[in-house]
Amino acid sequence: MPKQYMPLAGSTVIEHALAPFLADPRCRQIIVALDPADVRFRTLPPARDPRVQVVPGGAQRCDSVRNALQAIAAADDDWVLVHDAARPCVARSDVDTLIAAVAGDAVGGLLAVPLADTLKRGNDRQR
What we know:
The chain is an alpha+beta fold.
């Protein structure tokens, strides 16, 4: 199963990843790039939000981002936020902080959090 559909605290990873953007009224359009054969997303509540549009993903992540960017209906002064759906730990406050930090910037910025450790799941046989 793709990691964006793994269960996490009562929802899927992708639902958690989309939640801060769906909760933000400034996010007027949300584009989700998925494998064209994906049938799981349309069964999830975010797929029914009128702001959400699905586009075909690409062979690599950069191709998926390009496909999503091409589908955006944006004015020249609109901001575009790009987020990886397999990274569910962005809080609404993180989005607010990023937007506030780059609001006056002509280019934009990145939201990043340094990671100190890798998380792994094992079983009783692994030592």
